[in-house]
Amino acid sequence: MTAVNIPKLRVRAKKVQNLPQCAIEMSALATCWASISVDDKRCAETAKALASCMQKGKAPGAKRSSVNYHLARLGKQVLGKN
C-alpha cells in the first residue's frame, strides 16, 4: 500500500472586529468635551454613562469554534497517525 499525501484540512473563521467595551460612551464624552468644554456641566450625563459602563466589567468573550480541533483529531484517525 502506498502512502497518500492528503493535505491538512483547515477552516478559518471570519475575523470579526469588535468594538472595545465602552468605546461608544467614551467617544460620546470626547465629542462632548471637544464641542463644549471639559468643565461644562452639560457633559455630566455622558460622563455618568461612561462611568456606569466601566462599572459593569468586561463582557464575556465569544466562544471559539472547535472545527479545526476536530478536523485534526479525525484526520489522525483517518490517516492512521498517532
Automatic annotation (TrEMBL):
It comes from the Eukaryota. This is Uncharacterized protein. It comes from Kickxella alabastrina.
